[in-house]
Protein backbone atom coordinates (compact mmCIF):
# COMPACT_ATOMS: atom_id res chain seq x y z
CA UNK A 1 0.00 0.00 0.00
CA UNK A 2 1.26 3.45 -0.91
CA UNK A 3 1.88 5.81 2.02
CA UNK A 4 0.20 8.70 0.18
CA UNK A 5 -3.02 6.74 -0.37
CA UNK A 6 -5.70 7.23 2.25
CA UNK A 7 -7.92 4.36 3.32
CA UNK A 8 -10.92 6.61 4.13
CA UNK A 9 -13.19 8.14 1.50
CA UNK A 10 -12.36 11.73 0.52
CA UNK A 11 -14.75 14.50 1.73
CA UNK A 12 -17.40 15.46 -0.83
CA UNK A 13 -16.44 19.10 -0.84
CA UNK A 14 -12.78 18.66 -1.81
CA UNK A 15 -13.49 19.62 -5.42
CA UNK A 16 -15.53 22.76 -4.48
CA UNK A 17 -13.89 26.18 -4.12
CA UNK A 18 -13.65 27.49 -0.55
CA UNK A 19 -15.89 30.46 -1.37
CA UNK A 20 -18.74 28.11 -2.39
CA UNK A 21 -18.26 26.06 0.77
CA UNK A 22 -18.35 29.21 2.95
CA UNK A 23 -21.42 30.50 1.12
CA UNK A 24 -23.26 27.21 1.64
CA UNK A 25 -22.28 27.15 5.31
CA UNK A 26 -23.75 30.66 5.80
CA UNK A 27 -26.99 29.67 4.06
CA UNK A 28 -27.31 26.55 6.21
CA UNK A 29 -26.81 28.68 9.34
CA UNK A 30 -29.61 31.05 8.23
CA UNK A 31 -31.94 28.24 7.22
CA UNK A 32 -35.29 28.58 9.05
CA UNK A 33 -36.21 26.04 11.69
CA UNK A 34 -39.07 23.59 11.22
CA UNK A 35 -41.21 25.68 13.59
CA UNK A 36 -40.60 28.85 11.55
CA UNK A 37 -41.53 27.02 8.34
CA UNK A 38 -44.73 25.77 10.00
CA UNK A 39 -45.58 29.31 11.19
CA UNK A 40 -45.21 30.60 7.62
CA UNK A 41 -47.30 27.69 6.28
CA UNK A 42 -44.43 26.26 4.24
CA UNK A 43 -44.68 23.00 6.17
CA UNK A 44 -47.84 21.54 7.63
CA UNK A 45 -48.28 21.42 11.40
CA UNK A 46 -49.33 17.84 11.69
CA UNK A 47 -48.59 14.60 13.44
CA UNK A 48 -49.86 12.59 10.47
CA UNK A 49 -47.45 10.50 8.43
CA UNK A 50 -46.19 12.32 5.32
CA UNK A 51 -47.89 9.75 3.09
CA UNK A 52 -51.28 10.74 4.59
CA UNK A 53 -50.78 14.52 4.72
CA UNK A 54 -52.33 15.14 1.30
CA UNK A 55 -55.43 13.16 2.29
CA UNK A 56 -55.63 15.10 5.57
CA UNK A 57 -55.51 18.44 3.71
CA UNK A 58 -58.15 17.16 1.26
CA UNK A 59 -60.41 16.06 4.13
CA UNK A 60 -60.04 19.39 5.96
CA UNK A 61 -60.85 21.28 2.76
CA UNK A 62 -63.90 19.09 2.16
CA UNK A 63 -65.13 19.71 5.71
CA UNK A 64 -64.64 23.46 5.25
CA UNK A 65 -66.56 23.39 1.96
CA UNK A 66 -69.40 21.46 3.62
CA UNK A 67 -69.54 23.95 6.50
CA UNK A 68 -69.53 26.92 4.13
CA UNK A 69 -72.27 25.35 2.00
CA UNK A 70 -74.37 24.75 5.15
CA UNK A 71 -73.88 28.36 6.26
CA UNK A 72 -74.88 29.68 2.84
CA UNK A 73 -77.98 27.49 2.76
CA UNK A 74 -79.05 28.78 6.18
CA UNK A 75 -78.18 32.44 5.78
CA UNK A 76 -81.00 34.89 6.44
CA UNK A 77 -83.07 36.25 3.59
CA UNK A 78 -83.07 39.90 2.61
CA UNK A 79 -86.48 40.33 4.27
CA UNK A 80 -85.18 38.87 7.55
CA UNK A 81 -82.22 41.26 7.43
CA UNK A 82 -84.56 44.20 6.85
CA UNK A 83 -86.78 43.02 9.74
CA UNK A 84 -83.74 42.94 12.04
CA UNK A 85 -82.56 46.38 10.85
CA UNK A 86 -79.39 44.98 9.34
CA UNK A 87 -80.38 46.26 5.89
CA UNK A 88 -82.48 49.27 5.01
CA UNK A 89 -85.70 48.64 3.12
CA UNK A 90 -84.95 50.73 0.07
CA UNK A 91 -85.35 50.58 -3.67
CA UNK A 92 -82.63 53.18 -4.27
CA UNK A 93 -79.46 52.13 -6.06
CA UNK A 94 -76.62 51.22 -3.66
CA UNK A 95 -74.53 54.16 -4.87
CA UNK A 96 -77.31 56.56 -3.77
CA UNK A 97 -78.25 54.92 -0.45
CA UNK A 98 -75.87 57.07 1.62
CA UNK A 99 -77.40 60.23 0.13
CA UNK A 100 -80.89 58.87 0.85
CA UNK A 101 -79.98 58.34 4.53
CA UNK A 102 -78.48 61.83 4.68
CA UNK A 103 -81.63 63.37 3.16
CA UNK A 104 -83.88 61.44 5.57
CA UNK A 105 -81.85 62.70 8.54
CA UNK A 106 -82.02 66.23 7.24
CA UNK A 107 -85.79 65.93 6.80
CA UNK A 108 -86.19 64.61 10.36
CA UNK A 109 -84.01 67.43 11.68
CA UNK A 110 -86.14 70.02 9.90
CA UNK A 111 -89.36 68.42 11.18
CA UNK A 112 -88.02 68.43 14.73
CA UNK A 113 -87.00 72.10 14.43
CA UNK A 114 -90.53 73.04 13.30
CA UNK A 115 -92.12 71.08 16.15
CA UNK A 116 -89.80 72.69 18.70
CA UNK A 117 -90.64 76.17 17.36
CA UNK A 118 -94.37 75.46 17.74
CA UNK A 119 -94.01 74.03 21.22
CA UNK A 120 -95.69 76.20 23.83
CA UNK A 121 -93.54 78.06 26.31
CA UNK A 122 -93.66 77.37 30.04
CA UNK A 123 -95.70 80.53 30.58
CA UNK A 124 -98.31 79.42 28.03
CA UNK A 125 -98.60 76.05 29.75
CA UNK A 126 -99.14 77.74 33.12
CA UNK A 127 -101.77 80.09 31.62
CA UNK A 128 -103.62 77.12 30.13
CA UNK A 129 -103.45 75.38 33.52
CA UNK A 130 -101.50 72.44 32.11
CA UNK A 131 -98.68 72.85 34.64
CA UNK A 132 -98.36 74.82 37.85
UniProtKB/TrEMBL annotation:
Coiled coil: none annotated. It is found in: Nucleus. It holds the Pfam family RPEL. RPEL repeats lie at residues 22-47, 66-91, 110-132. GO terms for biological process: positive regulation of transcription by RNA polymerase II. It comes from the Eukaryota. Keywords: Nucleus, Repeat. Its main location: nucleus. InterPro entries: Myocardin-like (IPR043451), RPEL_repeat (IPR004018). One of its GO terms (cellular component) is nucleus. Transmembrane segments: none annotated. The keyword Amino-acid biosynthesis does not apply. The keyword Nucleus applies. One of its GO terms (molecular function) is transcription coactivator activity. This is RPEL repeat protein.
Amino acid sequence: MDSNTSTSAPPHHEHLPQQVIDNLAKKIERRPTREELEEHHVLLKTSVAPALQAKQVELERSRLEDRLEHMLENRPTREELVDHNVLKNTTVAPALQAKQVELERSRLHDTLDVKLERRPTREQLVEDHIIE
